[in-house]
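Give me the fold.
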Amino acid sequence: MIYSWRERPKWVIRAGVRGWESALRKTNKRLAETRRRPWPLSQRPGFLIRRLHQIHVALFQEACGHFEVTPLQYSLLSALAARETADQTTLAADIALDRTTTTGALKRLAARKLVQRAINDEDRRARLCKLTPAGAALLARIETSARSAHRATLGDLNEREQGLFIDMMRRIVAGNANRDSATALFS
């Protein structure tokens, strides 16, 4: 807050500071400089979250690159393993992505014969997806490496901190579920 000479802070009056006008000017100048100073990237949650995502993707590629599966494709394979069969819209909600990106990733997995995409008999516009035996086998082979990448992402935290960090991230995501397609993720 910028103070005027009429609104002297009580500390100025109580302390009996001589030259309170000078002290007031210095305080006001410091406050104004603080507001103009750029917010350091290292203190911005959005920047840190994006950086942590970049780090995780790099660690995932180091651990799982030889499987030729991206973190997104691994998420889709995992969601399909949990559901057995699902339409593309449900899978998009499960992994908190838009349908177009999800459909593209599923098409690439289908081209590798890891996922089967069949037209839904009840709704000809929808595609039902399920893991193929090759997809299930790949998921079983990649699981240890993928978990290793996830552990490495949090490797600088002790076990208690890792649990707290996961809990805090889940709370933030759940509190903002209406901001994207992740609604089904934590319900």
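The chain has two domains: 5-37, 42-153.
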